[in-house]
Design brief:
Blueprint: E1 9-13, E2 17-19, E3 22-23, H1 34-49, E4 54-58, H2 90-103, E5 107-114, H3 121-134, E6 140-147, H4 160-170, H5 177-195, H6 216-226, E7 233-234, H7 236-242, H8 252-258, H9 263-277, H10 291-300, H11 311-316, H12 321-341, H13 351-372, H14 374-378, H15 398-409, H16 415-427, H17 432-445, H18 450-460, H19 466-476, H20 501-506, E8 518-519, E9 532-533, H21 544-549, H22 565-580, E10 595-599, E11 602-606
Parallel strand pairs: 1-4, 5-6
Antiparallel strand pairs: 2-3, 4-7, 8-9, 10-11
Length: 615
């Protein structure tokens, strides 16, 4: 009855996994990962919001054998390991079973926040009841789930296989990313138009919890019983003391300072970002036909859509993609109303908002693809399994190990890569475009297998998302669904660092190098080079007198580039071509030369870089 019901808020802490049913690489840091540190502080904030009513349970107490996810292959699936798992992680079931025992209740209703890849509530309910029965416990257990809005659209209710196949067919080069993103944006616009017919937009369904308040006495009694089983119960202050410190090095201090982990901080970051997207440009009159005037208006306040700094809050659940989308839409309406009421000459910048919306839709693309290629995340199985190289380990290759360490430390000699890797180690973060550049450098330039970069990012990213990270690195290694990174130039200055401030901040040894292009003699420009050099981004090509004036000594004050990226890229592509031309003919489309993979049991030709088709 409602008068006797007790509510408990619990969180399952699993340092070996990211979600209820996915086990990932265990951190090599005894102080956990950047993601663990951020999550622990978020739990502390949640506990304060609940008045100390949060119970944190240790879901990593089971043996390591239990961390292996068993999968079953449904008829005609065609994708080994890509089907839903046959059972929940036994460590999760065991932890919940032990917690239920402490409640001393005859009936327990468990509501859980559903993860995109979690098994059904029926399976969890069945496993819990079996566990209870094996211990002769008569507690009645019911399990229900509710959505947490991890994506902009709900893909569990859609045929994702058909969506992906349709997106592939719609693109001239059979790349599903852009058509899929277009589909997401179109669906959101259509939903927005439908909601305008109502005075109040439809609300997301929430679980009908019994009771209206947290019973502190009940929580304290349960916590006291849990403290008798210390391997099951975790105290939040204990997590905060342990995480972020390794061998007396307080590496987490800067991360905690950079990323306040609370819902209030999340909404503050969202407000700041939204405001940056819709800033009116005042007192710059538009003159018809005057291109210089229009260019000046656009450059006066460029939207900062490159770095939103929302990703840690999205990956942890402090913000949902739908919240971000709605905030952008509301701000857009406000700014349009301001324009209609103002007599000033204003320009509302919506291009940044649209660009960021497409980035949110890219998250949806990765999540939807994971529903089809579950093994890519759960089993770390390449989507293009034909490229998988069983000999890709580098433990006995001293040169590759040296290159890997230089990349991790930000000492490759490529300033943009080094700046990103140093920022990652210091702040647990780097801009998305720098992540792509860094991954291209490691895989293409240094010829280190993509799995090593994936694990490093997993350990250091404060916004680590197992789905996003896995797909990014598989694409970087050309074994993912959409390997569009090949040929990414990691020595070219990006448009958003026109003043060089990003490089100067993270590579201070280069801060005195000039920002303008430098003329060099034609004889020294090299193959495919030009007569002008960007010394800040290509210090190895800068004239000696320029380096000397800036107090830069290559190999001493700043590393010389450890490889010529052109040689590394040629070796990388040749290795892929060698593997590709040893396949059976059924893996290559006769008409286009594209790779053929199984998408939910359907043989489908997918985008393949032209450089891999060359004999």
């Amino acid at each position: 009855s409602s008068s006797s019901a007790k509510i408990h808020f619990i969180h399952l802490w699993d340092e070996d996994g990211s979600t209820n049913s996915i086990s990932t690489t265990t951190s090599s840091n005894e102080g956990g990962t950047a993601r663990h540190l951020f999550q622990a502080h978020a739990l502390q904030s949640l506990n304060e919001t609940l008045g100390g009513g949060l119970v944190v349970l240790n879901a990593s107490t089971a043996s390591k054998d239990n961390d292996v996810i068993r999968t079953e292959k449904p008829p005609n699936s065609g994708d080994d390991g890509d089907s839903p798992s046959s059972s929940w992680n036994p460590s999760i079931v065991d932890t919940l079973h032990r917690f239920i025992q402490t409640l001393s209740s005859s009936t327990v209703v468990l509501y859980y926040l559903e993860n995109l890849l979690d098994d059904t509530a029926d399976k969890l309910q069945r496993q819990l009841r079996q566990r209870q029965a094996s211990c002769n416990i008569a507690t009645s257990i019911e399990v229900q789930s509710f959505h947490g809005d991890q994506t902009l659209l709900d893909y569990k209710e859609q045929n994702v296989v058909d969506l992906l196949c349709e997106a592939i067919q719609r693109h001239p080069f059979r790349s599903p990313l852009i058509p899929f993103v277009d589909m997401v944006v179109k669906s959101l616009r259509e939903q927005e138009e439908e909601q305008q017919q109502y005075q109040q937009p439809p609300q997301m369904a929430q679980p009908s919890l019994v009771g209206s308040a947290i019973d502190q006495n009940c929580n304290n009694a349960t916590r006291a019983r849990l403290e008798c089983a210390p391997d099951c119960y975790i105290q939040i202050h204990g997590l905060l003391e342990r995480l972020g410190t390794t061998r007396n090095t307080d590496w987490g201090r800067d991360i905690v300072r950079q990323w306040p982990a609370s819902e209030e901080a999340a909404h503050h970051a969202l407000d700041e970002f939204v405001d940056s997207q819709y800033t009116a440009l005042i007192n710059i009159p538009k003159i018809d036909g005057d291109k210089k005037s229009e260019k000046k208006r656009k450059k006066t306040k460029r939207p900062n859509h490159l770095v939103s700094r929302l990703s840690p809050y999205l990956s942890t659940g402090l913000l949902s993609p739908r919240q971000v989308y709605q905030a952008l839409q509301l701000k857009q309406q406000d700014e349009r109303q301001l324009l209609s009421l103002s007599s000033s000459s204003l320009l509302v910048s919506e291009s940044g908002s649209d660009s960021f919306l497409r980035r949110l839709a890219w998250r949806d693309y990765a999540y939807a693809a994971t529903l089809v290629f579950r093994g890519a995340v759960v089993g770390r199985k390449p989507i293009r399994s034909m490229y998988q190289d069983s000999s890709c380990r580098i433990h006995n290759d001293e040169m590759l190990l040296k290159h890997l360490q230089a990349w991790k430390d930000g000492n490759t000699g490529y300033p943009l890569v080094d700046a990103g890797m140093r920022q990652l180690k210091k702040e647990g973060f780097m801009p998305q475009q720098v992540r792509l550049v860094a991954s291209a450098c490691l895989v293409e330039g240094l010829n280190v297998p993509w799995e090593y970069g994936m694990r490093h990012f997993e350990e250091y990213l404060v916004d680590f998302d197992v789905i996003i990270n896995t797909h990014m690195w598989q694409n970087a290694g050309s074994v993912g669904l959409d390997p569009y990174y090949i040929g990414l130039d990691f020595k070219k200055r990006p448009y958003w660092d026109s003043d060089g401030s990003y490089i100067r901040k993270w590579c201070p040894e280069l801060k005195l190098l000039p920002n303008d292009l430098i003329e060099i003699p034609p004889a020294t420009k090299g193959v495919g080079g030009t007569n002008k050099v960007d010394a800040l981004y290509n210090p190895w090509r800068a004239p000696p007198e320029v380096l000397k004036k800036a107090h830069v000594i290559l190999c001493e004050t700043y590393p010389r580039r450890i490889v010529d990226e052109r040689d590394g890229r040629r070796a990388f592509l040749q290795n892929l071509r060698d593997r590709r031309f040893s396949w059976e003919a059924s893996h290559i489309d006769n008409m286009t030369g594209d790779d053929i993979i199984s998408v939910g049991g359907k043989s489908t030709a997918v985008f393949t870089p032209r450089s891999l088709k060359i004999s």
